[in-house]
Specification:
Elements (H helix, E strand, L loop, with lengths): L3 E2 L2 E2 L5 E9 L3 H9 L6 E4 L8 H4 L4 E2 L8 H11 L6 H21 L5 E2 L2 E2 L1 E2 L9 E2 L5 H15 L3 E4 L2 E9 L4 E9 L2 E12 L20 H9 L3 E2 L4 E8 L11 H5 L3 E3 L19 H15 L4 E4 L5 H7 L1 H9 L9 E10 L2 E3 L11 E3 L4 E2 L11 H10 L25 E2 L4 H18 L5 H18 L3 H7 L7 E2 L3 H29 L22 E5 L2 E5 L13
Parallel strand pairs: 3-4, 3-13, 4-10, 13-20, 19-21
Antiparallel strand pairs: 1-22, 2-23, 5-9, 6-7, 8-9, 11-12, 12-13, 14-19, 14-24, 15-18, 16-17, 17-18, 24-25
Helix pairs in contact: 1-5, 1-11, 3-4, 4-11, 6-15, 12-13, 12-15, 13-15
Length: 566
């Protein structure tokens, strides 16, 4: 380890107060900020920039009933079928019913969805019984984020704090309520208090070695809520997108499901459409089924990838609908107009998350969650394609009716403190586990899982967490008190803190994810156990996690009458 450099204690720190803090700048975070009362002061906090999020990467689109041959009942039925018995029907009906109005609101905000004959254009995606997916070419997420970002930046009551790394939630443990966050901006520790803290940090795809998620998706919101004692739900259900670009050295760029909806074929090395061997719907089966079909086919015949053939789609249609996919593939030496694209499954979306009710409330007072970070009940064991952007907007809208806030806490004047040193470079232990952990989780909790592998991975994660507890930076964090602050001067020290925070978060989402996967002894939706390959009706229930406690609940599988964490 290199020589340590001390942090500088600041004599008179201040606690900055906002009415609401939104952590995350994807579609869920930005739209939630816009829906909060305009009379409130709102901070939008992001560790990157307002244009870097998983939502920005979303290609396929947003599902909503807009076509005359479609119906709310069909959209509900498709969502419930994909969810494999674990959707909250009341939440699904709410999502679907609110979708058309939310689409109209997005259009008002400037989202330029594609049109045909002056009507909103819709396409078909897997497990949908009708063409109902609205899109903006193959960059729908970017279109939504661009429009929302412009509106957020134009609002005088909203302050955007970019390049700001949230370290943890600020809790009033005695009253089990959230008071705000501690965060690091430009090397300075800051405390932000608020009557409402909203987690909209997206998923945790970076806990897997193969993922379509951006590097910022380290499960921060779920990890912070887990440490704070919030109830988490259904963490074992992870959706693996079947068609991510698979080329040495290339990122796992997602090849949208809409490509298969428009007629692309999934083929093996011999050019055979093998998916029909595993599911009657072939390439248009639910994502979990297609991913397992690829996995099983490769296990049987060898190899590490299959191919997606776009050539059955008319060239003009490809050029119009999928310009970004075409460009990305061509940049890596693949021309989809003349040759198939090599693909393989990658972790894409986390159905589980922080348990919330319809108003986005968690089990901790004044703490809310929205988007992929939350478990609202609409996705069940397997998300229906293009319901995720929709969920962000529909549930973000609920903040328009948020209750009045409590007054912020009063704090005594902070005194200067002497802090332990923080290393200028990251500990080898942190660097090792940041590299090792995603491979460990992919092997244990990827497309197919079993008890022995899960137990081995859990043991390694427990050892890793014990090792990180001994590091100097851990001692610094244990001494933090509300209002305390310090300043890191060297970029190396700032980078070391960020790597430690993200590695800790990844470990803190990996553990409950793996333990939930071990707990559920059946296969359902995005969770497949080779040692329990069948779906068991006795497991038609949610798995709940709170600290070291695990239990099951059937609440919410019908009309919800109790909070999801009861």
């Amino acid at each position: 380890m290199t020589d340590p450099v001390p942090a500088t204690a600041i004599d008179h720190p201040t606690v900055e107060h906002f009415d609401a803090i939104v952590v995350g700048c994807g579609a869920a975070g930005l739209y939630s900020a816009l829906c909060l009362p305009e009379s409130w002061t709102v901070a939008v906090v992001t560790k990157a920039t307002v244009s870097r999020s998983a939502s920005d990467w979303a290609q396929g689109g947003l599902a909503a009933v807009t076509a005359p041959d479609d119906s709310l009942a069909l959209h509900v039925a498709d969502t419930l079928a994909a969810g494999a018995g674990l959707c909250d029907r009341a939440a699904v009906e709410f999502l679907v019913a609110e979708a058309p109005a939310c689409v109209a609101r997005l259009v008002e905000l400037g989202v330029a969805f594609d049109r045909e004959d002056d009507q909103l254009a819709v396409t078909l995606e897997a497990a949908h019984s009708r063409r109902r997916v609205l899109h903006a070419a193959d960059a729908t997420g970017r279109a939504v984020i661009s429009a929302l970002t412009a509106r957020v930046l134009d609002r005088s009551n909203i302050t955007v704090l970019s390049q700001t790394l949230v370290i943890d939630l600020w809790l009033d443990a005695a009253n089990q309520r959230c008071l705000g966050i501690s965060c690091l901006q430009g090397g300075r520790l800051r405390w932000l208090s608020a009557g409402a803290t909203i987690l909209a940090t997206g998923g945790g795809g970076q806990v897997f070695a193969h993922t379509t998620n951006p590097t910022v998706s380290t499960g921060d919101g779920v990890a912070m809520a887990y440490r704070a004692g919030a109830v988490l739900r259904d963490l074992e259900f992870v959706q693996f997108h079947p068609t991510a670009l698979d080329l040495p050295g290339a990122p796992h760029f997602l090849i949208s499901e809409a490509v298969r909806g428009e007629g692309a074929h999934l083929v093996d090395a011999q050019g055979r459409r093998f998916a029909f061997d595993f599911h009657e719907a072939g390439e248009l089966a639910p994502r979990d089924a297609v991913s397992r079909a690829i996995y099983a086919h490769l296990q049987q015949y060898g190899g590490d990838r299959v191919w997606l053939d776009l050539r059955p789609i008319p060239v003009n249609r490809i050029l119009h609908r999928f310009p970004n996919i075409l460009k990305a593939c061509q940049e890596w030496g693949i021309d989809p107009l003349t040759e198939p694209i090599p693909v393989s499954p990658a972790a894409h979306y986390w159905m589980g998350g922080i348990a919330t009710d319809q108003a986005n409330r968690t089990s901790i007072a004044q703490l809310y969650a929205v988007g992929e970070t939350a478990s609202t009940g609409v996705h069940g064991a397997n998300r229906l394609a293009s319901n995720s952007l929709l969920e962000c907007i529909v549930f973000g809208t609920q903040f328009g009716a948020i209750a009045a806030l409590e007054s912020p806490p009063s704090l005594p004047a902070a005194q200067p403190i002497a802090l332990p040193s923080i290393a200028t470079a990251c500990s080898p232990d942190v660097a090792h586990w940041r590299e090792r952990l995603p491979h460990l989780v992919w092997q244990a909790a990827g497309i197919c899982r079993d008890s022995a592998t899960l137990q081995g991975a859990i043991a390694q994660i427990q050892a890793a967490r014990a090792t990180l507890q001994t590091l100097p930076i851990q001692h610094v964090m244990e001494q933090m008190q509300p209002g305390m602050t310090w300043q890191l001067e060297q970029p190396e020290a700032i980078a070391a803190v960020q790597q430690w925070v993200e590695t800790r978060n990844l470990l803190d989402v990996a553990r409950p994810l793996l333990e939930s996967a071990l707990f559920r002894t059946e296969s359902r939706g995005g969770h497949h156990r080779t040692d329990h390959p069948n779906t068991n009706p006795d497991w038609e229930c949610h798995t709940l996690v709170q600290g070291d406690r695990r239990w099951i609940s059937r609440s919410g599988l019908g009309a919800r009458s109790t909070p999801p964490w009861v």
